[in-house]
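Suppose you are handed a protein chain with no further information: no name, no annotation, nothing but its sequence. What can you learn? This example shows the usual starting point.
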Amino acid sequence: MEAQARGLLETEPLHERDEDTVAGADFSSMLSEEEKEELKAELVQLEDEITTLRQVLSAKERHLVEIKQKLGMNLMNELKQNFSRSWHDVQTTAAYKKTHETLSHAGQKATAAFSNVGTAISKKFGDMRRK
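A reasonable first move is to predict its three-dimensional structure. Written in structure tokens, the prediction is:
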């Protein structure tokens, strides 16, 4: 009985299976005519409130677009800003810094090695010309 009473007090939202269970039940035979009328009135009121909220949301979204246009913000600018912010975040990570240092060091060593190879080749060609 306690588990059943606790079920009535749950504050968790209904899940799809719960909605299906409730939708499949026929409560109309358990309600008086007065209760049915009250529920119908509440249903109409809720539908009106939902419609109003949708209209308000739509108006706010239009206003948002207008403000962004006045500020010169568009989708491409927002994408660029998001990319720049994300790239900055990546660059400040320890992993990126360590990788950057390692690759930079490897690049310096490779440059020095190519330089040495180039010098050696030039020297060989010079020796071959002199012979």
